[in-house]
Structure formats: structure tokens, C-alpha cells
Amino acid sequence: MNRFHILTLFPEMVMDGLNTSIIGRAVEAGHLKIQAVNIRDYSQNKHMKVDDYPYGGGAGLVMQPEPIYRAYEDLVKDMKKKPRVIYMTPQGRVFHQDMAKELAKEEELVFLCGHYEGIDERVLEEIVTDYVSIGDYVLTGGELPAMVMIDAISRLVPGVLHNDDSAGDESFENGLLEYPQYTRPPVFLDKKVPDVLLSGHHENIRKWRHEQSVKRTKERRPDLWKEYEENEGKE
Ligand code: ADE
To answer: Are 92 and 124 in contact (CB under 8 A)?
Structure first.
């Protein structure tokens, strides 16, 4: 059972997004728990304000430290050990499959989502253990990045995907992109499903799929191919 806690100003955005499809089913089945904590609930301002102008001037507003800190303290008070707290920021390490695998081992994970021009540095220093970006582009907030990470991590948690093979066979798992897939009908727009897939010859199918994976990785992700070739020699 993995538990995800999301500190956010937009809890419904995260919960609506994650309560559907495979992740939603996994929550219902008890494989995962996903909880959004509204940072605004921890404001002690009479207008429930959570942001203010940046010291030193500049555009936009900065999220204040106290509501975030109070939300965090309230969240961790019953936990046996301090959880990893992931702050979603374009200034972080770029998320990838190996990181997802490592994080899937954690029982509790906290995601901190910022908005506006960021969060007061002092609370980040106090609670954040990991700074993570989902890519070199800037989004309006950390909610979508947190949802991306939770989706990628969740599907590695045992029981979330029904078919035990389905997490192992695909892109990135063996350093190659996944081979092309086909289903019925056998002919579509004059295009036939490759004969080998209809042959029932498992060894030939396995070989064909590997060749397709290699071809695809060379064409589409020469950077991954280079890494694969370098590692292959060593293993
Ligand atoms: N917040 C805004 N942009 C982001 C990104 N690319 N990754 C993670 N968090 C972000």
C-alpha cells in the first residue's frame, strides 16, 4: 500500500484527475491511497490569504511559509518516520523511470505543489527532501507535475496493473522503446498485420519484437540507443 499526500491550493484538480481510470480503480481496490490537503485550510488570515508580494520587488506573488508548514506538520504528526517531500519545480532533477521505480518503494510520499511565483525559500529548506521537474518547460503550477509523477509511480506498485507482465515489457524497462502492437482486424486500410504475429511461433515473435524495438529506438531516441549500446557491452 502506497500513500500519496498532495499539498496544494487546488485539491479538486488533483483528486478529479487521479480518481479516474486505472489509478482510481487501484485506490478503490486498496492498493493506493491518495489524499489532497488544501493549503488554504491552514491560513490563519481572516481572508484565508496564502500569498504576498515578494521582498525586494518583482512580478507576481509568493506563497507564504506558515500555511504550508502548518499543513506539513499536521500531515506528518502521525507518521512513524519523516516522509520524503517532493517539491515540484522546473529547477529540480528531471523525472524519469528509474526515479519512479525508486519512489514506488516509499510507503508515504508528500508532493508540494506551488503556484504564482513560487514558495518562500525558508519553508522549502525546512521540509523539502527532493526537488523534481517533469521537463524543461514552465507550467502554471505543480499539480500537473505531481499527477504525472503519481501516475508513473502508481503503476509500478504491485497489484495496480492487473497483468503482472504489463509493467515489465514496455518502453524504458529494458532501455529500449516498446515494439509496435496490433489487434483485430487483420487488414486495415490495406495494411496487413505482420505475418509473424499470426504465426504462433513464439521464438520468432520474440525476435521480431526485439528487432522492432531496436529499430524504433535508433530512429526515435538515438540518445537512448547510445546508452543501451554502451550498457550492453558491460552487462
Ligand atoms: N512547476 C512548473 N513547471 C514545472 C515543471 N516543468 N516541472 C515540475 N514542476 C513545475
So the answer is: no
Does the beta carbon of 8 lie inside 6 Å of ligand 1? no
Q: Give nearest CA residue, ligand 1 atom 6.
A: 90
The C-alpha atoms of residue 53 and residue 35 are separated, in whole angstroms, by: 30
How does pLDDT run across 56-97, given as a tens digit for each residue? 999 999 999 999 999 999 999 999 999 999 999 999 999 999
Residue with the smallest CA separation from ligand 1 atom 4 is 90
Question: H/E/C letters for each residue in 112-151?
Answer: ECCCCCCECHHHHHHHCCEEEECCCCCCCCCHHHHHHHHH
pLDDT tens-digit map of 30-60: 999 999 999 999 999 999 999 999 999 999 9
> pTM of the entire structure?
0.94
Q: Which atom of ligand 1 is nearest to the CA of 136?
A: 6
Sign of CA dihedral 75, 77, 83, 85: positive
Q: Which residue(s) pair with 38 in the sheet?
A: 8
**Is 88's C-beta closer than 6 angstroms to any atom of ligand 1?**
yes
The helix (H) or strand (E) run that includes residue 34 is strand 32-38
Task: Please tell me the predicted confidence (pLDDT) of residue 163.
Answer: 67
Ligand 1 contact, 7 CB (< 6 A): no
